[in-house]
């Protein structure tokens, strides 16, 4: 029997505990292509951008700069994405359904929320993602309830490795995989898929988990975040404190905003949710932006400190919070994007 995973913050009890669940109706601008040329300035004029404290925090209020147009493919491995959401549809270039083999459309809302954090379009409406020109892959591995099997999740990772053409080693292989999901049991099947993607040079980012007890000396394990090939992301609040629910442990690598995060949701609307699920796509979007600005770099390892690898770049540019240096709650610190602008 396949073991079960649950998307972090998807379950109703977690939404009640960790989410404001505020619903906002989007402006009715359908079919708008928000992509920009290489000379466009990174000035976010989206109507609700002022509500996105997380984006502002990692960019430190620096909004002027060039938006790169390099093709960077970011796979959201989750509950799917709302394929018709006006703030996402122009960036969604491919979908894959590992659950039923039908559609990658989101029946839950969790994957759509994560996709918006990483890559919502800059289009004078709604919200904007960390990298608004990214190519999004909607890879559904969790059903409408927000749960799924190791087998389906591993299949989704392998699908991301191949991209739309179904072949590995071509230009449309995913560059980044974002996984806002987790479970407490290890899985050789999933780990093998993660290792395969890592060996291909794909950057894998995962939520650290929402079972934290507020004590950094205790360890709460979540997979795939705990795998050494994965960048595990903890969640911070508006005061740069670690979120009360955020897992701690020796595998936590960096932290990102994850409390009261406003983003896209299924049905063309917007919601505010909390969880390490929301922190994860902030990092995945930043990784995509790093690749767009600096080009492909080696993924690197947990211990890297220089800027010659993706992981080293994240570590060396992070804002050190908590105990000086690496610690079990913040990892190397709060991610920072302003150096790229």
The major sheet is characterized as: 7 strands, parallel
**CATH T-level topology:** Rossmann fold
CATH architecture annotation name:
3-Layer(aba) Sandwich
**In angstroms, what is the radius of gyration?**
18 Å
Q: Can you give the mean pLDDT?
A: 86
The CATH homology group name: Peptidase S8/S53 domain
Number of domains: 1
Record field, number of beta strands = 13
Helical percent range?
Answer: 10-25%
CATH hierarchy class name = Alpha Beta
Order of helices and strands: EHEHEEHEEHEEHEEEEEHH
Query: Order of strands across the widest beta sheet?
Result: 4-5-3-7-9-10-11
- Class based on secondary structure composition and strand pairing: alpha/beta
Number of helices: 7
Task: Please characterize this protein's 3D structure.
It is a single chain. The chain is an alpha/beta fold. The chain has a single domain, classed as Rossmann fold. The longest helix is centred in the C-terminal third of the chain and has 19 residues. Helix 3 packs parallel to helix 6 and helix 4 runs parallel beside helix 5. The strands form three sheets. It has a seven-stranded parallel β-sheet with strand order 4-5-3-7-9-10-11, sandwiched between helices. It has a three-stranded antiparallel β-sheet with strand order 6-1-8. Strands 2-13-12 form a three-stranded antiparallel β-sheet, covered by helices on one side. The chain has seven helices and 13 strands. About 11% of the residues have low confidence.
